[in-house]
């Protein structure tokens, strides 16, 4: 009987050892799984952060572009206004010149008529 007990003991020790090893393996596996999940979470967090940054940059770029467009539109508008003003000014000057020419022409005609009348008077005397 004593031999049987002694024989059983090493087997039980072996079983206990195996159980312990299995438990440790499971613990290790669990730990690894948790670490991987943590890593995944961190990566996801990082990805989201990068995405946000990218969106921010895009928004900035978009705003910059819109600002540029607005500026260009404003400039075009101002140039157009200036051109119109210059055109108006030019037309006014041309009109003034025409009026002056007409006045000169009228004065010339009046003067010629006066001289003609004078000449006619002198001839009749």
TrEMBL record:
Residues 1-125 are annotated as: Disordered. Residues 74-86, 93-113 have a biased composition (Acidic residues). Residues 15-31 have a biased composition (Basic residues). Residues 1-14, 32-73, 114-125 have a biased composition (Basic and acidic residues). This is Uncharacterized protein. It comes from Endocarpon pusillum.
